[in-house]
Write a structure and sequence with these properties.
The complex is a heterodimer of chains A (about 150) and B (about 90).
Chain A: H1 4-26, H2 35-53, H3 64-87, H4 112-137
Chain B: H1 2-23, H2 38-50, H3 55-63, H4 65-87
Classes of the chains: A mainly alpha (about 150), B mainly alpha (about 90).
């Protein structure tokens, strides 16, 4: 099925949604928002994308591995930035003294917080989209295909 | 056997949770750890300690980063549970 109206709307709304989600993520330490809200917005844009293109052609279909990598990658960023603290001989998830804190109020400030916010964002986007994907097209057939 | 084991594990978890709830300070208790000046410390020092001017981000991702890791684990478990419920019972899933 090819839905022209949905596709044109998607072309405008999906990049706008993703840009807004990225804005929320990158400004998590400066303004209200952060990993969970920004990640949900980006996940919603993936859901919209797959609603628009899922039925028209197979080329645009997002793979299950994609959402899995978002999920796992986010968790790895989080735990990885926690382990950096241990490498420097401090506690797990130490910010001050391990990461460059920068000048409060600037975009590139707050060290670990920005990094972990991006990790949480990737993870939440992966979770939201993966739940949608699994509920929509997941589930194994009795013969083992899915 | 498996059912009994499940019930035993769940009851154990329930007991653990109840024990934690009993240990928690009463609602509005002035002696509670949350009312011993930690709020003033967060508001006064968070920008200097963490470099984040959003105090909430400073609390959840710096002072309480460990709790947020647990929160992220909740999401992870939710995905695992949904996937397991959908693929469970079949081989080659």
């Amino acid at each position: 099925m090819h839905d022209m109206i949905l596709e044109m709307l998607g072309r405008i709304l999906i990049p706008a949604t993703q840009l807004f989600g990225a804005y929320i993520l990158f400004h998590g330490h400066l303004s209200p928002g952060g990993g969970f809200s920004g990640g949900t917005i980006i996940g919603a844009s993936f859901i919209f994308y797959s609603l628009v293109y899922r039925f028209s052609d197979k080329k645009h279909r997002l793979k299950h591995e994609t959402s899995l990598w978002f999920e796992v990658g986010g968790a790895l960023i989080y735990v990885g930035s926690g382990l950096v603290g241990i490498l420097f001989g401090r506690h797990f998830l130490t910010n001050q003294g391990v990461f460059p804190i920068g000048e409060p109020g600037r975009l590139w400030s707050s060290g670990m917080i920005l990094l972990v916010t991006l990790g949480i964002g990737a993870k939440v986007a992966g979770t939201v989209f993966k739940l949608f994907q699994e509920l929509l097209e997941g589930g194994a057939e009795p013969d083992g295909h899915h | 056997m498996r059912k009994t084991l499940t019930i035993v594990i769940l009851l154990g978890l329930l007991t653990l949770l109840f024990l934690m709830v009993v240990e928690m300070p009463l609602y509005g208790d002035p002696e509670a750890p949350a009312h011993q000046g930690i709020m003033q410390k967060y508001l006064a020092d968070s920008a200097r300690d963490t470099g984040a001017i959003n105090t909430i981000a400073a609390i959840i991702i710096d002072y309480r980063a460990y709790d947020t890791l647990g929160e992220a684990t909740v999401l992870f478990v939710a995905v695992i549970a949904v996937t397991a419920a959908l693929y469970g019972g079949y081989e080659h899933a």
